[in-house]
Amino acid sequence: MEYVELYNVEYGECVVLGGAHHDILMVDCGSMNRSRKEDGRELTLCVSEEIFERYRKASSRTFLLSHCHRDHLSGFWNLLGKEPKYFNQIYLPASPCDRNGRALLLEFALFVFVFLRDQTDYSRANIASLRLFERTARASGPETVRGLGAGDSFVFDGVTYDVLWPPREDYPFSDLFAGAVEELNIELSSPFLPECARTFQALKNEFCRAYCQAASGAPLNAQAIAECTSLLVRIDELAAELNLLPPAPDIREILNRPVTRTAYADALNAASVVFHNRRTQEASLNDILMTGDAAPETFDAIADKLYAGYYILKTPHHGTASHWSHIFFELSAEHLLISSGGYDKGGKIAQEYVDFPAVKHCTNSEPCQWFQGSGCSCGRMAICYDLEDGPALSIKCPFVRGETQEAACRIYVVGSSGRRSCLCDNLSAAPPL
To answer: Residue 428's pLDDT is what?
Structure first.
C-alpha cells in the first residue's frame, strides 16, 4: 500500500488504496447526497467523471463492496454504467445465514420485493441486494466477481487481506430483526391459503440457496447467475396473486413499520465486510482495519482477531456515535479515516473520535460538533508520528504547510480542488510572514 485516498462524496464513502504498481483497491463508492456542497457539483458527475478519470490509467482496478446500502454502492453502479469492464476484480459481500441455515436478509428482501411494489428508496434498496451478483456479473463478467465472508482472503499489492466478518453460517442476527422475518413467514404459513403461498415459500428458499452458493467465495459461473435470475423472475410472476391474499395487508404493515425498517437497515450495516491486512512480521504501515458500517457488536465478536494497534483505522458508519465501539478504546491507531457529510438522517461525528489520540482525516466538517463550535480542525492539535524530524504537531507537516506535494503519511482527502491534507478547515498552517 503506497497511499490512501479518501474521496469526498458527502454522506457516503469511497476509500482507495493505491499500490506500488499503479494498481488500486477501491472500497465502496456511493453517497446519500445528490451534490457535493463544496462546489455544488452533482455527485453522479463527481463519480462518472472525476473518480472514473482519476483511476482510469491504473494498471489494475479492484472493487470491494462492504454492504448493500446506497451510500456505499450507488457510485459503483455509475462506474459500471460508464465502463462495464472498469474493474478487473470485484468482491461482493456474502449474505450470512443464521444457525438454522436461513439467509434472513435475503428472505426479508424477497418479502419487500413481492409485497411493496411501489418504487421507493426502501424497495429499491432491497431489489438492489437481490440482484447484486446478477447485475454485477452481467456488466463485468461472472469471472471477475467473487463473494466475501469471514475466513476468506484476497491479495492486493503483494499484501494478503483477511476477511474477519461476516460469518457465512451461525450469524447472530438481532432478535428484533429475526423476529420480524419470522412474523412475515408466519403470515403465509396457513395450510388454508392458496397454492401460490406455498410456491412462494419454496421459491424463496431456493433463491436463498442459489444466492448463497453464488456468494460462496469461488468465482461465479453463468449457471449460478442464471439460476438466481430465473428464480427471481418466477417469484415476480407470483406477486400479483400473492398481493390478493388475505394476509397481504398485514405483511405490508409489518414491512412498513418504522421499527422494522430500522431493524433491516441495522442488519445490513451489521453484516458489513470487515477486513484487515495479514501480518507476516511486526506492525507496519500496511496495518489497516476497514470496517464498512459494522455495528459495535461486530467488534465484540471479532475482538480476539484484531491487532492491538493499526496504522489506519477506517471508522464505521461515517464516524457516528451509534457505531462507536468500546473496543476502540483498547486499540491504538495513528490515523483515522472519517467519511461523512451533511445529511438530515445522518448522525454527528462521535466525540470519542475527536478525543481519540490519532490524526483524523475527515472528508467534511459539517457533521462535526467540534468544528462547528471551534471553527477549526481538531487536527491542529494532533501529533503526527510520520514526520521526518520526529513526532510533532500535524501543522508542522510540509504537505499541510503547502511546502511539498506529498504527505509523509501518504493519506489524502480528495475533493473538487484535488488532494488536501488532514486539516479540514482550509485555514493556513504556514507561519505568518
So the answer is: 67
